[in-house]
Design a protein that fits this description.
heterodimer; B: 4-stranded antiparallel β-sheet
């Protein structure tokens, strides 16, 4: 158990809808990272927050947004969902930023029908 | 630009064989970190090792060993006397401080047969 929690584990929704994925980092970790893992795209970095501030952006679509709250938990919002958004979404946390090892949550499997 | 290449998509070995997973990276940053993660069939990614760009010492942890060579931009991972429980997808990753973001390779799926 990495200490990172993600909810929900599974999410099934329809195209055009909006969903929110939640992540609680390990106790004491200040950085949260979001990744998307799909069969054809591999593990793609989406965005990183450090102590409430956005630190790095990857291949995150404009329809997606995220934030990190004062208690350090983070939410990833996905809107106007398309079939291609179906994937496993991972959250990871690390003590600081940049070069720290990341501890991954169990992931949220999103299915868009 | 940063890039991580894991040329081996799938590797199949028989238990007790040694196996090496290759990782080649590209970055213009002089300070960077390299990682290996394991993703077993259960799906969760597990951290295995971190190496910074100033430390080229090889590392051994039980049956696992890592060979970091800056001259060839490689960070290879060897499993000695493989076991069925080693069956997983292994990812190599790069994090350069200039860009903050972590780039993962496409992964190598390892099958270890009994």
């Amino acid at each position: 158990d990495s200490g990172v929690t993600q909810t929900p584990k599974h999410l099934i929704t329809a195209t055009g809808q909006r969903v929110t994925l939640r992540c609680s980092p390990r106790s004491g970790d200040l950085s949260v990272y979001w990744y998307q893992q799909s069969l054809d795209q591999g593990l793609q970095f989406l965005i990183q927050y450090y102590n409430g501030e956005e630190r790095a952006k990857g291949n995150i679509l404009e329809r997606f947004s995220a934030q990190q709250f004062p208690d350090l938990h983070s939410e990833l919002n996905l809107s106007s969902l398309e079939l291609g958004d179906s994937a496993l979404y991972f959250c990871a946390s690390s003590p600081r930023w940049g070069g720290d090892e990341q501890f991954f949550g169990p992931g949220t499997r999103l299915t868009v029908l | 630009a940063q890039k991580v290449t894991q040329a081996q998509t799938e590797i199949s070995v028989v238990e007790k064989e040694d196996v090496t997973l290759d990782c080649v990276y590209e970055t213009r940053d002089t300070t960077y970190y390299l990682f290996w993660y394991k993703q077993p069939p259960s799906g969760e990614l597990v951290f295995l090792i971190r190496r910074n760009s100033f430390d080229e010492q090889n590392e051994i942890s039980g049956r696992y060993s890592w060979n970091f060579q800056k001259s060839t931009s490689s960070f290879n991972f060897t499993i000695t006397a493989s076991q069925v429980v080693d069956s997983a997808v292994y990812f190599c990753a790069l994090s350069a401080l200039g860009g903050f973001k972590t780039i993962f390779g496409a992964g190598t799926r390892l099958f270890v047969k009994a």
